[in-house]
Amino acid sequence: MVKYILVAFAAASFYIANRFLYVAKINSTPKYFVYALFIGIGLLSAAAFLGRRQNNALLPFFTQLGFIIMGVWAITISFSLINEALNLIMLVFRIKNFRYYSTLICLIICAASSVWSIVNAGFILRVKEVAIKIPSLKTHALTIAAISDIHITTFTDPQEIKSLFDKVAALHADIIVIVGDLIDTDIVTDNFYKDFGFDALQAKHGVFAVSGNHDYYTGLPVFSELCRKNNITMLQNESVLIDDTITIAGINDIDWRHDEAIKSAFTSADKNLPVLFLSHRPESFDIVQSISDYHIIQLSGHTHAGQIPPIEIARRFFMKYNYGLYYAGDAALYISSGSRWWGPPMRFGNMGEIALITLEGTS
User: Domains in the chain, ordered, with CATH?
Assistant: First the structure.
C-alpha cells in the first residue's frame, strides 16, 4: 500500500511540474531540477499522510505543510484535467497559443483557489440554521446544535477547539449533539482533553454523541472514556427519552449499514414521539426510511461536503447523500459539512459549520 501511495503522489507531482514547465517555457537542463523539486515536495506530502498518527516534535509543521501540498496538488490536478478537456477544442478550431494561455490561466486559478481554500477552512465557521417541521412534537420548538468531524489530532491547537465549543455554547440550544469523528488521537491519557474546553458544552437537555470511523481508528474505549469524563452521553445502538418530548437514538459507526443494529436503537423509543437519530454516516438513512413506525430526523456528518476538488466535485454530482437537508416520506436527514476538516486544512466550495436545527411543532 505504501509504495502505491508514493507512486501516486510522485506521478501527480510530475504532471503538475510538466504543466508548470510548459507555461514557463523551460526546456533545457534546469527542467530536471524542477521535476526533482516538485516530486520531492509531493513525496513530503505523502510522508505527511503516512506519518499522520506518529508522535514526533518535528511533525506538526511538516504534517501541516504536507497536507496543504496535498490539497494544492488535488485542486491543481482537478482544474488541469478540466483544462485538458477544454483544450480539445483545438482539434476543431485552430486558435493560436490557445493551449498556452488556457494553461497559464488555469494555473493562476489553481493558485487563487488554493489560497481561498486555506483561508476558508482556517477562518470561516458559520452557523447554519435549519428548520424542520415535526407535527408530532409536543412543544412549540426544540433547538439542537450539531457539530461533527472535528478531528482533534496531536497537532490541533486547543484554543481553536475552545473557540468552536464557545460558539456552540453561545447558541443556547436545548440539545447539543456530536455526530462522530471527534478525535483522531488519544487526548484522554494524561488528561490532555482538559486543554480543549469541553466544559463549555452544556445544554438544557444534555450533550449526546455517537462514534465516527476516526473515533474507531483512535479506539472506541478512548472515545467512550472521553465522553464519560465530560458528561457527554455516548449512544451505542440505543436511545434515551428526553423530557417526554423527543427520543434521541444513536448507533456505533461500525453498524452504520446493519439493519438489525440500527433498528435495535429504536426498540425502546416511544412511537408517539419524534426520534432524533444520530448516525455518523448518512447512508444509514436508506435503512431508516424503512422504519415506518417512527417520525425520524437523522443527523449525520462524515462527507465534509467534499472539502476540495476532486472529491468535492465527485460527491456533489455523483453521490446520493452529500450535504444538506433530504426528505423521504416522513423521515428527514440533515448532513453537516463538518465543523473542521480532515487532512488538508482547506475548503473550496463549502464551509465549515455548526448546524442549528430547529424542530418546529404544531402546538
Answer: 2-122 (no CATH), 126-360 (3.60.21.10)
Is 347 within 8 Å of 311 (Cβ atoms)? no
As a whole number, the mean pLDDT across the chain is 92
Residues ≥6 apart with Cβ < 8 Å to 11: none
Peptide bond preceding 309 in cis form (omega within 30 of 0): no
What phi and psi values does residue 30 have, to the nearest 5 degrees?
Answer: -55, -20
Q: How far is CA 146 from CA 1, 92, 201, 310, in A?
A: 36, 52, 11, 27
User: What's the Cα-to-Cα distance from 134 to each of 94, 146, 171, 197, rounded to whole Å?
Assistant: 60, 18, 21, 33
Phi and psi of 96, rounded to 5°? -60, 130
The answer to which of 61-65, 105-109, 207-211, 269-273 has the lowest mean pLDDT is: 61-65
pLDDT digits (tens, 9 = 90+) for 311-350: 999 999 999 999 999 999 889 999 999 999 999 999 999 9
Considering the chain, what percentage of its residues have pLDDT values greater than 70? 96
- Determine how β-strand 207-210 pairs with β-strand 331-335: unpaired
The alpha carbon torsion through 157, 159, 164, 166 (nearest 10 deg) reads 160
